[in-house]
Amino acid sequence: MRILITNDDGINAPGLAVLHEIATELAGSDGEVWTVAPAFEQSGVAHCISYTHPMMIAKMGERRYAAEGSPADCVMAGLHDVMGDRPDLILSGVNRGNNSAENALYSGTLGGAMEGALQRITSFALSQYLGPQNVHADDPFEAARAHGADVIRRVLSTNPKETSDYQLFYNINFPPVGAASVAGVRAAAQGFREHTRFTVEPHHSPSGRKFLWVRGGEQHRPTAPGTDANVNLDGYISVTPMRADLTAHDVLDTLKAIE
């Protein structure tokens, strides 16, 4: 199996090293793992692409490249410049912090997987929820490291029949616990954290200029029962099937009234 990996935390992020281990296990002894990741951190860029300016790409080692662009840029670079033959699988992550609930909409990690799906390649985004039980551990990524390859294999074994123009990709979030405390795996819809919003916080520099820092909301507020953040906080790995189709299909019939 040939696998392309990327992330949004940058080429030197520890989560990318964990993902390389996961991908190497999946690829097998006869497989290949290629890395094309952002030269610098690209958290929060979602599915951004560098449409109005070029990006530099540099070879860092055998099958390892850094690009001055977003995760979606890196996927395109991997597919159309670096690899030659297309990969069988694209993995993005392992993100430091969860991409459950509304975080999914901002996530560069998901942006990489989404681009893979738009390029018609099976793609996964992987993120490690952090909390009191693992954030200060020697290995905060232990749950992802121990369970990542198995979860991906289990999803691939279901072999869902693709019927949409917008191909599926998968959002996997590992719970904020150690590997031994993972309760299992749950297929879960994307949730919504009530009363949690991204905001900005103003600060002034020594010169008096005003700057705004973006701040996230409370990450340990549960979502509805059975949805992603809720099962994560109960110790389960969540697997959420997603598409890039943003249409609110449930409203289309109502809108017929405007025709």
TrEMBL record:
User: Which residues are recorded as binding a divalent metal cation?
Assistant: D8, D9, S43, N95
CC cofactor note: Binds 1 divalent metal cation per subunit.
**What reaction does this catalyse?**
a ribonucleoside 5'-phosphate + H2O = a ribonucleoside + phosphate
- Top-level EC class: hydrolase
Question: What protein name is recorded for this chain?
Answer: 5'-nucleotidase SurE
> EC number(s)?
3.1.3.5
Start and end of every Survival protein SurE-like phosphatase/nucleotidase domain? Answer: 3-195
Give this protein's Gene Ontology molecular function annotations: 3'-nucleotidase activity; 5'-nucleotidase activity; exopolyphosphatase activity; metal ion binding; nucleotide binding
Query: Where in the cell is the protein located?
Result: Cytoplasm
Pfam families with a match to the protein in the record = SurE
Q: Which GO terms describe its cellular component?
A: cytoplasm
Purpose of the protein: Nucleotidase that shows phosphatase activity on nucleoside 5'-monophosphates.
UniProt entry keywords in alphabetical sequence: Cytoplasm, Hydrolase, Metal-binding, Nucleotide-binding
Q: Which InterPro entries match?
A: SurE, SurE-like_Pase/nucleotidase, SurE-like_sf
| Family label | Belongs to the SurE nucleotidase family.
The Swiss-Prot or TrEMBL record lists the needed cofactor(s) as:
a divalent metal cation
